[in-house]
Write a structure and sequence with these properties.
Blueprint lengths: L2 H16 L2 H8 L5 H11 L14 E3 L2 E3 L5
Antiparallel strand pairs: 1-2
């Protein structure tokens, strides 16, 4: 179950990285964590629509503050 969504998301990830070689290089040489790239692509360009993410703890990313319970 879920193989189609997974396959489509992998293809989308490769497409996003192919369009941004600097990001690909940063992952390859360790300046950027692959898990961070995956999370960001899932957040911005996910093939699975209709899902909501809710912050489980207060956090700040790139100047944006999220409080626990926010979407």
């Amino acid at each position: 179950a879920g193989h189609e969504t997974t396959r489509n998301q992998i293809g989308l990830m490769v497409s996003v990285l192919a369009a941004r070689p600097a990001v690909w290089d940063a992952v390859a040489d360790g300046r950027l964590r692959s898990t961070d790239v995956v999370e960001e692509v899932l957040r911005v360009r996910s093939t699975a629509t209709g899902f909501v993410r809710i912050a489980t703890a207060d956090d700040e990313r790139a100047g944006a503050v999220l409080t626990a319970g926010e979407m």
